[in-house]
Amino acid sequence: MARIVALSTPEAQARFERLPPALRIASLSPVFAAADTQRDPTLRCVHAGLEDAGFEWIHSVHLRPLADQKGQWGATSPYGYGGPITPVTDPALRAQAWAAWQAWCREEGVLAEFCRFHPQLPSSPLAFGGTVRENRATVSVDLSVPEVTAGFNSLTRRKIRRSQQAGVQTRWSREAADWARYAPFYRQAMQDVQAAAFYFFSDAYFEALSQLPCAHLLVCEHEGRWLSAGVYLLEGGLLEYHLGASSPEGKDVGTPCLLQAQAAAWGQAQGAQALYLAGGTDPSPDNPLLFYKLGFSRRTLPFSVGEAIHDDNRYWATAARLGFSPGHPPPRLLLD
């Protein structure tokens, strides 16, 4: 009978690397999920694998303890994306795996789960047995075409030319000193835009990212001053934009656009088929961050989220203590 087992990070990563190339997206890898826990000491990373089923199914989640409920947990995707990964397309086999996952969750005290699905892997929501809804549009740059820059809009091209004429240089790095420099550079940029506290990642987080073979740092600089820099994840045919930051000077010169142009060129040279830029900071179609990303491509992919209650009795007992019920549910899933 099919069952779920908890895997170590090396065991889960070995299974991940045996999956078909189209399923191996860097931000969905077990090693990324494990590294991502460095952003929050309350998180516990679990890699789940299916046994005795005759097919592969793996799922990495972060568990967060439910407030005042010892031994009870809420599950979420790592920062970015998650969801079960499996090569099977048979709905019955997917349902079998999901039933095994829910049984494991009930045994381990995981009451509910919130999942963010990667838009570049449309099969992932189909392997999730909960409720799925579309959230917002995201941007993906096609790197399979001969002239990637032909898809950039005129404003983006002007900003790229401006930064090049200003003498801005770009370089890729995996050097520890550059990663150490990126951490405060990124946090200063988040402070400049008054970002939410969530986005002020620690030095330990960037140190963990720097150890991942898939993680690369791109820097735009002039006379020793960093103007823009970004973290990209490369696995197989997909280059992903994970985190980016720019100084006020960089924004004036146009280096946020140069950053993505260089990433696209490098990704294409590495054999990537797409540069995934993600979407805006909210679902609004006129979100400023989405507007910036659409300057590189008009190709959009839907981003969806999923919710599932794994243990109805204990979940609603917990919700009842907060004044909620199935007829009067909380505005969002109770996961902490």
Describe what this molecule looks like in 3D.
This protein is α+β, with helices and mostly antiparallel strands. The protein folds into two domains: 150 residues, Gcn5-related N-acetyltransferase (GNAT) (Aminopeptidase, 3-Layer(aba) Sandwich), CATH 3.40.630.30; 129 residues, Gcn5-related N-acetyltransferase (GNAT) (Aminopeptidase, 3-Layer(aba) Sandwich). The protein has ten helices and twelve strands. It has a twelve-stranded mixed sheet, with helices on both faces. A hairpin with a 2-residue loop joins strand 8 and strand 9. Helix 4 packs across helix 8 and helix 5 crosses helix 6. The radius of gyration is 21 Å and the shape is globular. The model has no long low-confidence stretch (mean pLDDT 96).
Give the SSE layout:
Elements: E1 3-7, H1 9-17, H2 30-36, E2 44-51, E3 58-65, E4 73-76, H3 91-108, E5 110-116, E6 131-142, H4 154-165, E7 169-173, H5 176-192, H6 203-210, E8 215-222, E9 225-235, E10 238-246, H7 248-253, H8 255-269, E11 274-279, H9 288-294, E12 300-309, H10 312-320
Parallel strand pairs: 4-5, 10-11
Antiparallel strand pairs: 1-2, 2-3, 3-4, 5-12, 6-11, 6-12, 7-8, 8-9, 9-10
